[in-house]
Design goal:
Two copies of one chain form a homodimer. Chain A is an alpha+beta fold and 185 residues long. Chain A folds into two domains: 1-35, Single Sheet (Ubiquitin Ligase Nedd4, Chain: W), CATH 2.20.70.10; 38-183, Nucleoside Triphosphate Pyrophosphohydrolase (Alpha-Beta Complex), CATH 3.90.79. Chain A contains two helices and twelve strands, in the order βββββββαβββαββ. In chain A, the strands form two sheets. In chain A, strands 4, 5, 6, 7, 8, 9, 10, 11 and 12 form a nine-stranded mixed β-sheet that branches. At the A-B interface, α1 and β8 of A face α1 and β8 of B.
Chain lengths: 185, 185
């Protein structure tokens, strides 16, 4: 950040009075420009013991597989963000999605939230941000061609829970970076 | 937003190619300036069937009572944000905080996360953002002097669960605005 988005003057990095962290502060109008983590919301689409993945048609990680997910927008809920992204990337809807996992990734200032739910629409083909979509059993997951570590981690935890818990599992796994904080059953 | 924070030129509101929402886009360097929801993380500090609240020493809602909470910063986890804010506002630490509630408030583009946990430090006095701190039983909660609706809602849900569930309750309540999506037990 070089310039104030309010008045166009230069910003300087300084700790505002009463604050404890350096911020970008306008040298003219003294506006403080805070920067905060972003939420990435997505879904784990389930059907007949398989999971739907999308092959990315955009950078980063063009051509690799991922769960449908994307940045939460202003004026929506976490659930709406997750289902909107799933519709945009995979053209599907889910029945009663429930929160499965929350990951904090502090070094990139992101918080991931994944909802799980059964696909309840026809699978017609990929959205514009995906090259293709496909259903994978646990044995078929393309582990070496997944786009992001958080997707691998989420899928590993998902299948671990499939093995260890019955269909009544309804909970959230809260992770922060590489430390498991809490599991809810 | 009036000016590009990268090059200082004017921004215009337009839908970038491949996008579906209007963004602030620089008229010169064409940088796209996304705006996303912010996370507010906080705690429900418990001690002897009472909850610690803080009376706000800052605007908005100066003088009203709240749970310790604040904006999550870059490069921290949701848990760290919650416990940092609790230290800053109430000078206390909690034993093994666990996520209790997540609220999406779309009309102000905020997502609240509250962790519950037992106070395991001495209660010495308020932090600089609080006028005073105090412990309240359910009957003593100053319902008419709470700072924010999300605090009232969280406390109501908290006490409801205290009545309906025993001490083994360990779960999260996921709310979006005024619709209860999911409860985990």
């Amino acid at each position: 950040m070089n310039y104030c988005n309010q008045c166009g003057a230069s910003v300087i990095r300084s700790i505002p009075e009463g604050d404890h962290l350096p911020r970008f502060v306008c040298s003219e109008c003294h506006s403080i420009h805070y920067e905060n983590p972003r939420i990435i919301a997505g879904c784990i689409p389930e059907l007949d013991n398989k999971i739907l993945l999308c092959r990315r048609a955009i950078e980063p990680k063009y051509g690799l597989w991922t769960l449908p997910a994307g940045f939460m927008e202003n004026n929506e809920t976490t659930l709406l963000a997750a289902t909107r992204e799933t519709m945009e990337e995979a053209n599907i809807t889910l029945e009663s999605p429930s929160l499965f996992s929350i990951f904090s990734i502090p070094h990139i200032s992101q918080v991931y939230m994944f909802y799980r739910g059964t696909i309840n629409s026809a699978i017609t083909g990929p959205g514009t941000e995906s090259l293709e979509i496909a259903l994978f059993s646990e044995a078929e997951i393309p582990w070496n061609d997944l786009a992001f570590p958080v997707v691998s981690e989420t899928l590993k935890l998902y299948f671990e829970h499939q093995h260890n818990h019955d269909a009544t599992f309804n909970g959230a796994i809260i992770k922060t970076n590489d430390q498991l904080i809490t599991r809810f059953y």
